[in-house]
């Protein structure tokens, strides 16, 4: 009961626009620096370089979502383009992840697609790949529609997306997205029981079903989980089904389970770390606190260290 209240509380805070705006002026507080790689592109490049030296590849995420003006969305687009250019210039090994609400999706769909095309053009110039993050359920279908349009109408093959295992629809989506690189996650938003599973054992079971479906279809699969039980099951599954290591990768968030990350690298698996950065960190950090009660220790330590 306490865990549920705690989760709902942090999810509520993550959607508070006033607190999100205030946090931009605070700098990284409450332990957020342990899970957010600084506020500038330069900070992000150094973090990726450090991780690369440990055998870990990355995906960078310039934090921000739910923008309310075209000017904000254009600035976010330009910042993402500069991030791709910095990746190319420094030679670090990192992809880019983007949220389409940051690029104006809630303002105008065509405007958002135009911004996505700018980012994907920059990714092509720098020989890189862009992952469209999946947001809350209200943005799920339009995200998949835009992904299709970017790939089939505009001809971008350097773009994929994320599927969340807690949604009832996800198995059908994975089947429909055969051949497209996917990051598979459990899901981190508060969703209604009418569209999402609520119980962890059910979500875990569906998560494995999605992983197996996408791998068996021959599609490149990113398994994004800190759950060592899930990771062990994936290892067994790929061995039993003769799935080569270059068809999948494990992914984890920056600042979490670093010893497990290194262990997977030593075992010869591709390990990618999702590295968020930027001053719009509050919503991301609150969702990390909501996901697991253990994560609250970040906030407690951060609060008392100030």
Automatic annotation (TrEMBL):
Q: What Pfam families does the record tag this protein with?
A: Pro_dh (PF01619)
**Name assigned to this protein:** proline dehydrogenase
According to its UniProt entry, the protein's GO biological process terms are:
L-proline catabolic process to L-glutamate
The entry marks the following residues as binding substrate, namely: 99, 287-288
The answer to keyword Oxidoreductase applying to this record is yes
Record keyword Flavoprotein present: yes
Q: Where is the Proline dehydrogenase domain?
A: 44-299
In its UniProt entry, the species of origin is given as Bacillus yapensis
Picking any one GO molecular function of the record gives: proline dehydrogenase activity
Pathway the protein takes part in: Amino-acid degradation; L-proline degradation into L-glutamate; L-glutamate from L-proline: step 1/2
Using the UniProt record, name the top-level EC class of this enzyme in a single word: oxidoreductase
Q: Which domain of life is it from?
A: Bacteria
Q: Which reaction does it catalyse?
A: L-proline + a quinone = (S)-1-pyrroline-5-carboxylate + a quinol + H(+)
Alphabetical list of PANTHER family matching this protein: PROLINE DEHYDROGENASE 1, MITOCHONDRIAL, PROLINE OXIDASE
